[in-house]
């Protein structure tokens, strides 16, 4: 009979702990009786007394009861709902140190998921922001009611308590303003607010997106049903109170789910899109299209991609998971031809429009999966020299990685927003590719997110 493993650490147990590093979610990591302990809010170098909240056979979770020795990099978080909200994890850590820790989070992922000799790898210093606040160009605030008052914000970590956020200091100021005004309009005209528990009410979420360079704003109201009560009044009040809003959309999500958007989007008023400018490019963004949330850092990120691609004007490039074509367009002037693909048809339509508008004739876009399209092109005699990929947090599809190993482009440029899936994918690719370098870029200051650009060369 298999012996049950006895827990070395028990719930409610208290003990001193030295924090060694930050975990992938921004929590402090220490070791007690050779077991890993995760402590939210604790910083590397701190000596704390903790109380265990959850004990697992391989690790424990704990909270800080007392700080015996503070980190010299600890600062007071400027946000008033910082600890309840959980949207940011690192406001209490000095920004220059956040950049160092993010590089370390990348290293930890490589240590955990690869067999690389880390000390021999070129892992560069994190590229940060001059002003690491008010950078996000899109907000998605859930609606609720508190004592009859309409509130908008985010659900607290590990709970279904909605935290009202009148001003989020990592959001562009205009998205805060627009959300607050729309919330007021819904309250003024007693539009039924959706209740998660009873599943009654209509309006669930206010999604606000701003083109930072153009000043154009799009509002999308996510509703539980197609019928939006007092729709005409809502539209006319938004136009009256918010002249910067050029596009009003409605998305219908009837499901009991934490996923924000449903499948159906309706155009209510104004334009279907908003425009955003990044250097010489203007992008058309439809309501569902993916676009980077930090335009200032996006320029730095894409310039890193261009550097990693090392173009001479003769290359054939595949832009996999291409979205609205942002990366491909950035590279187009240095390539012979670019072929982008994505499984979201609206994104591909936007990509085609964006290419046409900029007179980029060497970029072509296709709806479909890279793992299906690329082998077909190779069979037709079209061999890519460089493949650029910017996958979702889940990383690259295993079939896509198999395809890369078969197609063997000379260069592979991997843009990642998740160090763990990046590390796993690099291990798979390492059978045919050498990891030349990794360049972390801070796209989300004050959070634990780490974005990076990795250059891989065919061995």
TrEMBL record:
Indicate yes or no for the key word Zinc: no
Which residues make up the binding site for S-adenosyl-L-methionine?
292, 321, 342, 390
Q: Which domain of life is it from?
A: Bacteria
Molecular function via GO: 4 iron, 4 sulfur cluster binding; rRNA (uridine-C5-)-methyltransferase activity
Q: Which CDD domains match?
A: AdoMet_MTases
Q: Does the keyword Ribonucleoprotein apply?
A: no
UniProtKB keywords: 4Fe-4S, Iron, Iron-sulfur, Metal-binding, Methyltransferase, S-adenosyl-L-methionine, Transferase
Q: Supply the Pfam families for this chain.
A: TRAM, tRNA_U5-meth_tr
Output this protein's name.
23S rRNA (Uracil(1939)-C(5))-methyltransferase RlmD
Organism name: Heyndrickxia camelliae
């Amino acid at each position: 009979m298999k012996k049950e493993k006895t827990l070395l650490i028990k719930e409610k147990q208290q003990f001193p702990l030295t924090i060694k590093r930050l975990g992938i979610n921004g929590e402090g990591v220490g070791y007690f009786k050779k077991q890993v302990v995760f402590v939210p809010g604790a910083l590397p170098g701190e000596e704390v007394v903790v109380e265990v909240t959850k004990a697992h056979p391989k690790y424990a979770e704990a909270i800080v009861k007392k700080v015996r020795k503070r980190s010299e990099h600890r600062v007071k978080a400027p946000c008033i709902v910082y600890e309840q909200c959980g949207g940011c994890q690192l406001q209490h850590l000095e920004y220059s140190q956040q950049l160092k820790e993010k590089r370390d989070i990348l290293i930890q992922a490589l240590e955990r998921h690869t067999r690389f000799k880390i000390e021999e790898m070129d892992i560069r210093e994190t590229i940060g922001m001059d002003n690491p606040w008010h950078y996000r160009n899109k907000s998605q605030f859930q609606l609720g009611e508190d004592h009859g008052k309409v509130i908008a914000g985010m659900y607290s970590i590990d709970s279904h308590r909605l935290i009202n956020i009148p001003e989020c200091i990592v959001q562009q100021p205009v998205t805060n303003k627009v959300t607050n005004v729309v919330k007021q309009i819904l309250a003024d005209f007693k539009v039924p607010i959706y209740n998660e528990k009873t599943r009654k009410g209509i309006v669930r979420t206010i999604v606000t997106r701003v083109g930072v360079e153009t000043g154009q704003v799009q509002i999308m109201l996510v509703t539980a049903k197609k019928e939006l009560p007092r729709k005409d009044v809502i539209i006319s009040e938004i136009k009256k109170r918010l002249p910067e809003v050029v596009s009003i959309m409605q998305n219908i999500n009837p499901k009991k789910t934490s996923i924000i958007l449903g499948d159906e989007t309706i155009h209510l008023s104004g334009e279907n899109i908003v425009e955003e400018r990044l250097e010489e490019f203007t992008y058309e963004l439809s309501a569902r299209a993916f676009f980077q949330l930090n335009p200032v850092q996006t320029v730095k990120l894409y310039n890193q991609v261009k550097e990693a691609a090392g173009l001479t004007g003769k290359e054939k490039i595949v832009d996999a998971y291409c979205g609205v074509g942002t990366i491909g367009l950035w590279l187009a002037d240095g390539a012979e031809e670019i072929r982008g693909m994505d499984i979201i048809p609206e994104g591909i339509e936007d990509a085609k429009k964006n290419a046409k508008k900029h007179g980029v004739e060497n970029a072509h876009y296709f709806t479909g999966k890279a793992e299906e399209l690329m082998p077909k092109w190779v069979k037709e005699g079209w061999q890519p020299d460089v493949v650029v990929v910017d996958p979702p947090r889940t990383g690259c599809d295993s079939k896509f990685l198999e395809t890369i190993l078969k197609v063997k482009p000379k260069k592979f440029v991997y843009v990642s927003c998740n160090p763990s899936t990046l590390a796993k994918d690099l291990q798979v690719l390492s059978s045919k590719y050498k990891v030349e370098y990794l360049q972390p870029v801070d796209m989300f200051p004050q959070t634990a997110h780490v974005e990076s650009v990795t250059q891989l060369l065919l061995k």
